Fold this protein.
Amino acid sequence: MPISLYNTMSRSVEQFKPISDETVKMYCCGPTVYNYAHIGNLRTYIFEDVLKRTLLHAGYKVTHVMNITDVGHLTGDGDDGEDKMEKSARESGKSVWDIARFYTEAFFKDFDALHNLRPDITCKATDHVADMIALIQRLEKGGHTYVAGGNVYFSIDTFPDYGRLARLDLNELRSGARIDVDDNKRNPKDFVLWFTNSKFGEQAMMWDSPWGRGYPGWHIECSAMSMKYLGEHFDIHCGGIDAIPIHHTNEIAQSEAATGHTWVNYWLHGEFLLNDTGKMSKSSGEFLTLSVLTSKGYDPMDYRFFILGGHYRSQLKFSWQAMDTARTARGNLFDRIAALKAGAAPAKSLGEAASRWCASFDEHVFNDLNTPRGLADLWGLLKDDTISPAEKLAAAYRMDTILGLGFESLSARQAEESIVDDPEALALVARRVEAKKARDYALADEIRDKLDAMGYAVKDTPDGTRLMKKM
Ligand code: AMP
Ligand code: ZN
């Protein structure tokens, strides 16, 4: 079944055709590690994970590269403001290197807790400054740069295709020249490749370069590292929607000006998670982290489930009420899966009805990652009385290779809980099932209380009664 993806470059859903039949090469802009990732950032990584899992499910190998921005990202994307890392270090009294290490670890803790598959290559900007310098030199040789006020700039007028991704109107850009604050720029949309003229006297991260001691601009890192690990032409580049007008626009200009050919075939962007006041952002200081959610009793899978319930190209509004709804639905889902596991091993093959649900699931998810429709297929499967528990389980596992909710490990855990070898407890459960059949609910409740006192929990699920040792 072919995969279709919305390509921001063409503004249309296109059938995905990889450059090589075997391995899909995919680059995702990673975190700027000056603070915790907020749950909006994490939405973007879940969308990218679903994309990767879909490609894997379709039978491709995937080489997934993600960068860690630990230098050069200013508080404004257009070369304005100060370095986010330096600012965080100054405010916390720690070194920039400690800040980077701390927040990178925190990032991956959240990343893993959300069941995102780790990138095959994770690369830090600070480890690749030599690659960035080499790329800037290549651009310099091609006549795409100029030095002004001590900094090296990319001249967008040397790249006629500038702004194609964002469909920028260059005439409009020109007329905006007056409002630009950096007098060194020949065109207001020119951007810094290398800073030697630091605005901040105490800049800690500096490297020698042909243009003097300094540090790279933010955009150059993604061009240099993606080309190093994926080659000069690769399949997919992803990020949040905010990256389109500046960051990805500038990445394309640098990369294609240097190589003279197309750099990336498919551009995918995830829409924003919003809060009551609009966009959730780190710089506004008001943002929610995964730890805040877990400290309030939500499971990371409640958040993943909430995100999967929206299409990645639609804005999604966060609210506690929405999280509660997600938690209840996710809990019901897990109960059903655990009950299936307690009663059956996954079937080795699927009959017609289960196969139909799987095909419908694939059709929806392969169609521009429509996870809300995919979840509806999962529920449809679980509620379909014509399908045996063993087949349901096998089909649910299959869907979960994309959803990433962790059904297999959940069922293993639940299965352990379900192994009750106490004959008295098992006899009581059997009596309770009979009592319920006879509509003797008073007796059923009495038996439940007795089991409770013996240290067992009884749970009635649509797929039968479950008996578990209480933890
Ligand atoms: P940053 O760590 O700030 O570089 O951002 C990491 C990723 O999160 C980028 O791909 C951003 O585009 C994305 N992002 C930032 N804010 C949001 C948001 N509110 N919702 C979804 N994605 C976001
Ligand atoms: Zn990037």
About this structure: The CA atoms of residues 458 and 467 lie 5 Å apart. The mean pLDDT is 90.
